[in-house]
User: Fold this.
Amino acid sequence: MQPTSEDSDINFDYQLDPSKPLVLLLGWIDHEGILSSLKTSGRQYKKKILNSYPENWTATADLFDQYKISSVVGKLPAEVLQLIVNKNYHAVRERLFGAIGSVPNQIYLFEDILAGEQSDKFREEYKPFPAPAILKEALTFLRQHNIEVIPYARKAEVTVLADAFLDDTNKNLIFRLYVPTSRLWSGEADRFLQLFQDYLVKVEQLKVRLDQKRTEHGVVYEFHGHPSAGQHTLAPEFQEFSKLMALFQTDADAATALIASKGGNPKEVLQLVARYAKEARRLQLDIKHEAETKAIAIRHRLESELIEYDLSPDEWAQLPALVSQAVPKITDALFGETLYLGRPSPATGGPAHVTYNFRPQFINTVNGVIAEEINGNQHFEPEHHQLLELVAKHGELQAKTLETAIYEIADKGVDKVDRLKAKQRLTAFLIEVGKKTGDLAFGVLQSYIEKQLGL
Assistant:
């Protein structure tokens, strides 16, 4: 395969300013809507074609030395995946993609190419379709260099997704979380996130602000600002803050040492330690009280609604144990985990070694009451819970972002573009996990995701 020797650069109609940030466009992604957005916001940009010779990859990498690249967005054809694994490009690929991965980036790849399934050989996006070994090596290389690969099914999606990405980077969006309203501990989650923003500013010394978008069913928390050097997300800081708040419950000295290690005035460090320790104790106490209140509410509702079934004494005696099982244990309310989003209520029936003798005619009532009291006012289908479990098992550092995406596709009050972004992230995740595990059943979950968006 011979790459094109041409590199069509499309820039502003004036000289680029090295003192100003530059948006790098890769491939044929310079659609009218994207360029219009860049021009309207006054951002300068440069387009580079990667289906080209190694010399052009070197010239593209040089841009990171010549300009302050603020973000990279592009669309890769199958040919570029083959060039990534070509030995003639090995010397320059590390430098180029290492630089791209150091800034906010999104690279769009046709969905069937990402999945490795050539369903229509006549589609332009498939020519030439990469061999499985080449595809695996190229995608592994991109992931290792922090390249976010987003699948697309239609070209129109690329314009929408790229425009949204550029808008997010222009607003310095670096972290996004969704918390369902009326969910157990949703109020405590709100306070936790407010404290997290305070921690970022006063301990991590980052310039970060916290915004909220409310829907009927949830709150989207958006952190805007500048992350730590070399990062374009707050996921590591979120994990560390979660650890810190938990440490205040078990090892106050270790928590103090963690804050002190960030530097700062010793007097201010002591003040911060005292404040966070107090807030951690307050949150833990409120979590305990909320769980107890919810357990009583569930038991009272069940007693009222099940009275018409003429329960036997044995059935009445089992209700307290059922309620106890339904409410998450306080020890499970780890800061940043259960507290952050909450978890779906467990199915009735309990652990394998416990048997509950409930008659089928009222089991739906029991499940309904528990779900409403624990999960809030939004009904979730079984696939929703399956996705959460899958993300908890395989999501790793992207777990929070993926959990947020799961809730966003289920909430029709979330902006359509944000729901599309959530869908594409989840699609990429399912494709990757499916390849790792060999599980072919993920097609059902993909169908659920598409159904949520009316596809």
In short: The radius of gyration is 25 Å.
